[in-house]
Amino acid sequence: MRTRDKHVTERLVGFPLRSEPGTIAKNGQNVNLVAELFSQILGHKLQISALERFIASGTRSAVFAFCGPEHIGKATVARCFAASLLQVPVSELDRHPDVIALTPETKENGLRAYDVDTIRDALHRLGQSSIFGKTVAIIDDANTLNVQSQNALLKTLEEPNASTIVIVIAHDESALLPTIRSRAVILSFFGTAPTGSEDVQNNAK
Q1: CA proximity to 135, closest of 91, 78, 97, 81
Q2: Which of 110, 169, 99 is CA-nearest to residue 136?
Q3: Cα dist. 108→105, 112, 113, 158 in Å?
Q4: Higher pLDDT residue, 28 or 135?
Q5: How far is 113 from 106, CA to CA, in rounded Å?
Q6: Ranges of H-type helices in the chain
Q7: What pLDDT, in 10s, does the model give residues 86-123?
Q8: Count of H helices and E strands in the chain?
């Protein structure tokens, strides 16, 4: 078996093919998967509305930066967004062959940080073809990325795969390089429900 075929086979082991993409069974009926996924989230209506519009647009490649205080649901929204893009329940994300989910490691000094090799390995996977038509990468606590890792990420963002969505999650937007922020659709999250639309900024180039 060729190396590429072997890699694809390993990624598919135990993953079920869906016969009815876009729907999910609920109370014996098929309901819209995107609406069902986002309906489980309390608050963040403006951000969710922006993400729903993006999904409806059919755009296949983009970079998002979810920014805001810690522990307010940014990662939860990111996972629902990823599941919506891939048309699967959230419970299938952890074993989905087209999902790349990264979290920093806790070092001996107690601080959380990414190893540049972890980022490089993820970027290598992003450069490969997806199995089900789209690859989604979620980079949590991206504010812990050092400059070397961010520069490695930037190279991929400058020439993204035609079917790749990258979601960068950071509680400190200023920790991201200006060149990364300039290439991202920035969604700002708040601890309480905002009353205006200023929390959604589209800085995509």
Answers
A1: 97
A2: 99
A3: 10, 9, 11, 34
A4: 135
A5: 6
A6: 3-12, 33-39, 45-57, 74-86, 116-126, 147-158, 178-181
A7: 988 899 999 999 999 999 988 888 888 888 788 888 98
A8: 7, 10
